[in-house]
Amino acid sequence: xxxxxxxxxxxxxxxxxxxxxxxxxxxxxxxxxxxxxxxxxxxxxxxxxxxxxxxxxxxxxxxxxxxxxxxxxxxxxxxxxxxxxxxxxxxxxxxxxxxxxxxxxxxxxxxxxxxxxxxxxxxxxxxxxxxxxxxxxxxxxxxxxxxxxxxxxxxxxxxxxxxxxxxxxxxxxxxxxxxxxxxxxxxxxxxxxxxxxxxxxxxxxxxxxxxxxxxxxxxxxxxxxxxxxxxxxxxxxxxxxxxxxxxx
Length: 248
Fold this sequence. Notes:
Blueprint: H1 2-68, H2 73-96, H3 100-107, H4 110-121, H5 132-146, H6 151-161, H7 181-200, H8 218-244
């Protein structure tokens, strides 16, 4: 009986020890899962960082290449691509036995064709200011188109001067030509039109008779305007006190 009594508590102790062993095992498994999850997230972040670093490096390299290219590289590239497409289209039409110009016209819409026709009809179009040489050339073309040659006067001059009418490198014509009255009037009229047009686009400010005179000449007036523009809000009170005579 005593043996049986002694055996009962020994079996309960073994069961309790097994429960104690199973409890830390579950906690360890949970900790291991959390650790594995953190490691997985860390690896993902590490991969994303490497990928971002690689993409940034590629973008820096591409930007450096773009900066080293000429300023009009994009326009040249588009032009070359368009020329390649045209060449391919011409070869395709030649293989099919078709006329490229006719095929091209069939692909153009009515709106585009009308716009191009209007553009062709425009004489000496104003494309905007590019440089002074282009503006001078445009002005020269406009003036030469206004010239209406007098063929009767030309024939008369050719009869009078003969071969001297066509000067060469050895010809001396300085002071021999006297312009006609019509030519002088035409030049004066054109110059007046240029002056009138220039006045419309002038940035010169209109003179205000009612404005206070606080300058001694035009250069001093410009300086005073610049000073007023930059420091007027800081010196307004001082100026008013000086004008009233109440300055301390």
